[in-house]
């Protein structure tokens, strides 16, 4: 008996969306970073997969992602050149492909201009830094907290993490050279009588960035304290500062399966999960007692922050 | 008979979240813009409203929003100062308030550095400009489209909109002076053989910004065409350019209900709805036929764009 | 001398994106809500606006938005029918229009199934309710807080707001009949020894929804307390509950400029700003002292909530 | 000479945010899924790390993530129980921890009610399905496209992927049993004269879900075609349907490093990159020629879709 419904595949495409990678281009002590998000889409003679689940012509999207990683090990060039190389590869390498489309998106990072820094390996992105103030009048008394958020920074050298506690669940390898990336959230309180808030704000930001760039990091915690201490040392109006440094993980891609050197130049960027390190630094005598729990500035950014 | 459950109000607060406004500070031909988002929260003797719906002590959150608008008519000062003025006002003006908290957030805008511009009234925000490339190899042939998105710009003078078609549903008033804000999306194609893509990209961006700032706007459409034409005039490699200019509405707040001058300095920023103007500009002889429908660069930014 | 660059407009379109409205269809005591987001796009003979800023053929996008509002006053029908009516109107009404495109998006709301409710006018959307738990062990002691978020509800009758405090900045009109919409956030603590957490959670949600639907609201604050009290009355394990009820503003569209009845059926939905009402309800004797400041559950949802 | 600035660490905390996992609880042919996002935060005697970069007391956040994965291999229980177990573990296992806080968030999935399905292993989440219509009048003629998006579904059995093309860049292992998750986007066109759009819509959704659940999948492509064919077979009004099925990757966590069985129950959920499979299915005779490129419904969802 005839099949009453005749359905045909009128069009097809498949690929990998949003391969987010960071490439570090090292020229001696001077580094450059490329923050790329790549999408690949192939169309062509793939009917057998759609109709019968016959995948013999289907290059997995995972392999497409790997190809992006491997090609990133070579010099990137412009986004157009990188896209063109990938599109040409996919179109030429696999006979079923009739069209290969590659979309490349790049976000910019600028080198942090830090005085006297031996190596130019610290960066801030072109993103959106937001100024914050929380003013409260309670029982007739005014208090003002000041803040910043959205300051994305990374450094491509001068960051280690090792000699940590291990337990049954530890699989992380110690490292003497890792990429450190974070998005600084800060909140500070000034001494009573302060009114030059904008001047203080500029100084706080400058000291935070400089300390981030200059500190040879053994832990994000240590970088956090160094940043806070630098602010207290350099900005006399500031009494205390709370910092939040999410650890935005950048994991080197192992290129050896593709017959390449292992490399330490191409990194996968993970949105989540992410580590999050918080701490509060204030003026005072050392040994004044154990530190309390930091649950700010997350907490501090109430009210109503969570709803957006 | 006794009420078996005794419930008490242990804490209370209410307020208005995310009052987004733009303040234009005009010093002659030189303008400055302040992009503020304000949240107000009041706590105190508001039990009667919670327990009995008795609102006699409740200042509506709408009035709190209005207060933010009215206070923005005065000089803003720092975000701390603006927050402190508002917190002090709420705490002093209404006896039921025990604590008034105000959160102020500011995003930065920079003046566009345009040569020879008579008035400094055009701005770009500190946000994230993204470079884009779409490379396609189809049937053995490579085509590359180039793009930009995320370029937020606004101008505080030199924009009109009037003499438009009206119908039964038209309520918009014509204006000779409006704030014009948009986020530029662009996609262009270069002549065959082009390879200096990065140089072209820099030039395209510079011409887009310059044309936006210098064009006295009678319509967003006109600004769009002026921007596209400028790119074609200044960048010989570009064959055609598609532009998308959402019209991000900034509506002047009427301050007269508060006993203030009407003012043209405090604007409410609307996220949506928004107008969206698209067009494609290419080299060619005028009168070569009616223009087709623009449904790009929206369309162009496939594949997979919509899913994020 | 001839102009060396000849630029032509190859394509054009303009329209209004994301007109978000809610239509209440009342059939006596039984209401139905339609949550629509509409985008309109016109293409055609609009070159004069692009080339010369001549807007005589340009129907403002604001008028397009008004048209959507006015058409929503008639029965909506299916999303296809509503889109088709609008597209036909734009194409027929204005000679310059060659193509009119309308995109209609609808989110679903379901009627809340509340026992014994006289009028079927309370709704929950099909959205994502999220279960939350915060477990803390500090100094050897475990505490657990339980929560819910993402519960969107609205009611189309039984909500008033009037008799409130007014000051110089008050322009809000009192109302005896308003649409009340919120997204419930809740956090509660159970008595020591509680372990039937999932059973408690189900009961808390049921009581929250029922109290929202059944309470004739004179203030969001009053609804909040009624919801909290109902939970304490109905769920003996719960010792206290913190609630956060953002007031998602739905403002009736004035249709009289279009020659229609004023109407109370078509509402503009505002994303922001929004009111936000918080409170904490616990077991205890009335008059046990003034309530403290509520800055949770915003605060409670630390750590790290704000970063996403 | 004494250091003039004395800075102390006033508070500290660190942890892992947003560990997103899916647990499949298998009871024979009947499966249950738990979609959990966990954040861990530790505070205590961690000053040495902040002050000196001495990490000897610091359990890496990566180990905290691993712990969440390992604990998820045991029965989850309620979100409160899962959080409590983790908080107790962290507080007890590591002497420096003074407080351990764990936040657990769960999104719900419901079993798809498919008639005659032998195993109950297909699910839809409680999320937001959106109805779409695109109506166009061009040159006097109306066309209407209909759509759906936001339909999240997954199946925990009946999905394989193997026998695919491999190249130099392929590292993916073939699998006979994988978790398949997607978020269906669909757009269809009806025959001229169709007006029962809402009835068609309901039928299309029912057939899409049923075909997803019932199809033993050898490739997402095959599932896509099966879904499209089923719609054409079951809904005579539909002439063609375009489908977009992002492949939301769920990767089994290898538990063997923790001394556990490898397991196939705990999955890491990756937001991106993701595979994306598109195709268009229409009525017609087989062998009517090679399929074209699918670049919709991504493209179709213009205009203005990308801007939000």
From TrEMBL, chains A, B, C, D:
It holds the Pfam family Uricase. The keyword Plastid does not apply. The gene is pucL. PANTHER family: URICASE (PTHR42874). It catalyses: urate + O2 + H2O = 5-hydroxyisourate + H2O2. Its EC number is 1.7.3.3. Catalyzes the oxidation of uric acid to 5-hydroxyisourate, which is further processed to form (S)-allantoin. Belongs to the uricase family. It comes from Catenulispora pinistramenti. Keywords: Oxidoreductase, Purine metabolism. NCBIfam families: urate_oxi. This is Uricase. InterPro entries: Uricase. Pathway: Purine metabolism; urate degradation; (S)-allantoin from urate: step 1/3. The lineage of its organism: Bacteria, Bacillati, Actinomycetota, Actinomycetes, Catenulisporales. Residues 296-308 have a biased composition (Acidic residues). Residues 282-308 are annotated as: Disordered. It is an enzyme of class 1 (oxidoreductase).
């Amino acid at each position: 008996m005839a099949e009453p419904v005749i359905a045909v595949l009128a069009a097809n495409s498949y690929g990998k969306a949003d391969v987010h990678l960071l490439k570090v281009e090292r020229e001696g002590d001077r580094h450059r970073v490329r923050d790329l998000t790549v999408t690949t889409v192939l169309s062509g003679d793939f009917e057998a997969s759609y109709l019968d689940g016959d995948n013999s012509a289907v290059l997995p999207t995972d392999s497409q992602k790997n190809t992006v990683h491997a090609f990133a090990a070579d010099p990137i060039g412009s986004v157009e050149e990188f896209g063109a190389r990938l599109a040409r590869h996919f179109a030429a390498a696999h006979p079923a492909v009739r069209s290969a489309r590659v979309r490349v998106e790049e976000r910019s990072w600028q080198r942090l201009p830090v005085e006297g820094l031996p190596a130019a390996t610290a960066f801030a992105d072109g993103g959106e830094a937001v100024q914050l103030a929380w003013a409260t009048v309670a029982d007739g008394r005014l208090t003002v907290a000041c803040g910043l958020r959205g300051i994305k920074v990374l450094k491509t050298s001068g960051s280690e993490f090792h000699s940590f506690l291990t337990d049954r669940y530890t699989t992380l390898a110690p490292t003497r050279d890792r990429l450190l990336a974070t998005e600084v959230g800060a909140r500070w309180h000034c001494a009573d009588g302060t009114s030059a808030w904008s001047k203080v704000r500029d100084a706080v930001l400058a000291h935070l960035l400089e300390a981030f760039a200059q500190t040879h990091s053994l832990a994000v915690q240590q970088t956090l304290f160094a940043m806070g201490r630098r602010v207290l040392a350099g900005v006399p109006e500031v009494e205390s500062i709370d910092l939040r440094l999410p650890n935005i993980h950048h994991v080197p891609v192992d290129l050896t399966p593709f017959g390449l050197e292992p490399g330490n130049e191409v990194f996968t960027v993970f949105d989540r999960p992410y580590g999050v390190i918080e701490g509060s630094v204030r003026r005072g005598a050392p040994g004044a007692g154990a530190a309390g729990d930091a649950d700010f500035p997350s907490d501090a950014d109430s009210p109503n922050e969570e709803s957006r």
